[in-house]
Amino acid sequence: MTEKTRINIFMTLQWLFLGGFTVCIAITKPQYDIISAWIACGTLIASGVAVGIAALMAHRKINGSIYIKPSPEPREAVELVTQGIYSRIRHPIYLAVSLIVAGVAIFSAHWTAIGFAVVIIIFYTCKLRFEERLLIRKYPEYAAYRKDTGALLPRIPRHSS
User: Fold this and answer.
1) Do the domain assignments include residue 13?
2) Are 151 and 128 a contacting pair, CB within 8 Å?
3) Do residues 92 and 52 touch, judged by C-beta distance below 8 A?
4) Which residue from 2, 79, 86, 124 could staple onto 94, CB 3.0 to 4.6 Å apart?
5) Residue 150 pairs with which residues in a beta bridge?
6) pLDDT at 24
7) DSSP code at position 89
8) To which H or E segment does residue 120 belong?
9) How far apart are CA 91 and CA 99, in angstroms?
10) 100-122 tens-digit pLDDT
11) What is the four-CA torsion angle of 100, 105, 107, 109, rounded to 10 degrees?
12) Is residue 23 part of a domain?
């Protein structure tokens, strides 16, 4: 299978999963009436939004635009962003979407929404592995950046004794 075919498959699956999740949420009624559930789900969603905004602002600072393409294929005239939230997390947009989807799914408390959320999170994990191969090819410095930075969560520094 060619690289271009894989990119198209990732893009198609991404929109199908997110679309299916959206439809599922639209047709289900939230099941929680207790304040702690609202707070927990709201915290996940707000955290996702905050991570997403931080990623867009870091991208804008380096590349002059908040445009981030949904394709795993790196854009041509774009510098590698390693500042701001990207200094701790290599894929903050995937983390942001995952947190938002998890919060909405848990809030819905419907098994199909939770199932879609799990599939979406697993999908982004697979997509980022493919994307990283493309990033290493485009940016020689990406391999070193990858060693020091977590993919979806910050890496815990190792202390030598």
Assistant:
1) no
2) yes
3) yes
4) 124
5) 89
6) 87
7) B
8) helix 111-138
9) 13
10) 999 999 888 888 999 999 999 99
11) -170
12) no
| 105 vs 118: CA distance, rounded Å | 9
Q: Is the pLDDT of residue 161 over 60?
A: no
Residue 80 CA, chain-centre distance (Å), reads 17
Position 60 in a domain? yes
Report how far residue 60's alpha carbon sits from residue 16's, in angstroms, rounded to the nearest whole number. Answer: 28
Q: Is 90 exposed, middle or buried (0-12, 13-18, 19+ CB in 10 A)?
A: buried
Count of domains forming the chain? 1
Structural domain of 131: 35-69+80-151
pLDDT in tens, 16-45: 999 999 998 888 777 666 777 778 889 999
Token look-up 């939004």 returns 49
The secondary structure of residue 85, as a DSSP letter, is: G
Instruction: Return the percentage of the chain with pLDDT > 90, whole number.
Output: 66
User: Length of the chain in residues, anyone?
Assistant: 161
How many angstroms separate the Cα of 157 from the Cα of each of 85, 148, 150, 160?
Answer: 16, 9, 10, 10
Using DSSP, how many helices (H) and how many strands (E) does the chain show?
5, 0
CA 22 to CA 121: how far, in whole Å?
15
C-alpha angle 16/21/24, rounded to 5°? 125
